[in-house]
Amino acid sequence: MSSVPILSTLKETVCVLDLTPLTALGGTTARVDSFDGLRISECPDWALASVAARLGQEPAMASAARAFLGMALPDVARTAEPDPFGVFWIGPDQWMIEAPHDTHESLAAQIKAALGDTASVTEQTDGWVRFDLQGERCHDVLERLCNADTRSMAPGSVTRTRLEHLGCLLIRRPQDDHFSVLGPRSSARSIHHALMTAATSAI
Amino acid sequence: MIINHPLLGPRDSQEFTYLGDASLIDRPDWQAENAVDQFHDYLYLRDNPAGSHRELWFHETGDRSWLVVTRDTTTHEITAVELARDVARARGRSK
């Protein structure tokens, strides 16, 4: 989460800034919108890092990642959720890894330490906004917004898709009727507006 | 038009962007004696077949892989789709 100074207090000769984190939508708490059969929630509490195997290092990277995650990296278009991580396939020899921000603020550094020169690791936390859609009406909203056939997506799968003109990762969680949309953070309000408009229209 | 992605299966062509002739993979050696001539041909000379054509497509709103698509320019029938990196490596490229 980004931080802005909201108050500066003079204490003797030192100026102390009290920092309050803001979510991608600009609030101090995560936005939640409830509909009949659908809950759309902003999920700011996740750290993200991307991982790309280096050329010729793919097998070494896979075994190092297995040791770090306690589970093999997911196959094409699949996800894995080895607690406390979420791992999403995003392209050939490329994955996105999420973890709770409170415990894994330095996620990219932790992954880089584990994978060494077998992979290129990039901090992604503040580049993305995550919205979760939960409830049996989620398909009715997503089918109005993107190409992905959400009803036929297997639980534990992921696809990149265009959602209201924005390239997003769409993840179907292992639980029933639970999708995550990861999109560009700078367009958080546009994505939220699209989700709200489609939900209002469909429900 | 549907492009049958080698990894992800059939995908709508609106997810892809088109670059051009797959011969763009064969970038000349910039240190060759006749590099200027080679780059002239590489940049400006294209076949324009009415029929089977090998071309580069980018899966922009997908997994971001480059593909070599063999498409009939008169019917849009697609007869082969390969990962461009496999094609490039088969031609001796290191990446």
From TrEMBL, chain A:
Q: What is this protein called?
A: Sarcosine oxidase subunit gamma
Query: Can you name the source organism?
Result: Sedimentitalea nanhaiensis
State the source organism's domain of life.
Bacteria
From TrEMBL, chain B:
The record's section on Pfam families has: SoxD
* Protein name listed in UniProt: Sarcosine oxidase subunit delta
Q: From what superkingdom does this record's organism come?
A: Bacteria
Care to name a GO molecular-function term for this sequence?
Answer: sarcosine oxidase activity
User: Which GO BP annotation is one of this protein's?
Assistant: tetrahydrofolate metabolic process
